[in-house]
């Protein structure tokens, strides 16, 4: 009988230890992860999830989380330094689906399989956040972050429920040129979430070449100008384009002073940690409140 009690006591200690470990310690996969995060958006999401183990981060003029101060800069998200990444002996390389077409063949050839996260819409990003939470044993943090986004989405929907949807044209400027963002783009999705109607819909791509005559016929109520890289230079380019190209003065949005430049830190080309703040900004622009 005494021997049986000793055995039972040992079993209870083992069970208790197992329960304590599941609550307080990360999974083996999370604890051993060596993550290379190749975009600012992913890096900020990982920080919000309190994920450690990031050994590589993108090179950027933007301020990156202090948590990853010691991580090695691995180059531009669109042209990462593969040799440097390989030297970090990563277990996970994280990029985004918008860059997969260009990066996958390069990473595969270098023997560096990467995961491409879908940040093309707010809902897709929320799904990826939940999966990252599962993978790195940060489910509570992931749930809290997604709850924050959901609360803002629900709030905006309630505020716009009885309002007429303004027609919106979204221009994405890059140094020397600009594209038109469709409803398949991340900013296009934000506009939809904020109650706007993108004038360019039904396409299978995120961005199209600009045709100003066609765009004028769409007669947008609001024009949003986003910058991708070198934002100050792009804003100057847009200003020059709108001053020198006579067709813009025929747009109702221009005539009514409804042209807005989007802050790049809030409105990236992919989903990011500032999505809820971006929705607030869009609401003010679309409804002038």
TrEMBL record:
Q: Write out the GO cellular component annotations.
A: membrane
Q: Which residues form the Fe/B12 periplasmic-binding domain?
A: 34-289
* Signal peptide positions on this chain: 1-16
Co-factor(s): heme b
Q: Which GO terms describe its molecular function?
A: heme binding; metal ion binding
Tell me which family the UniProt entry assigns to this protein: Belongs to the bacterial solute-binding protein 8 family.
Task: Report the protein name in the record.
Answer: High-affinity heme uptake system protein IsdE
Species per Swiss-Prot/TrEMBL record: Terribacillus halophilus
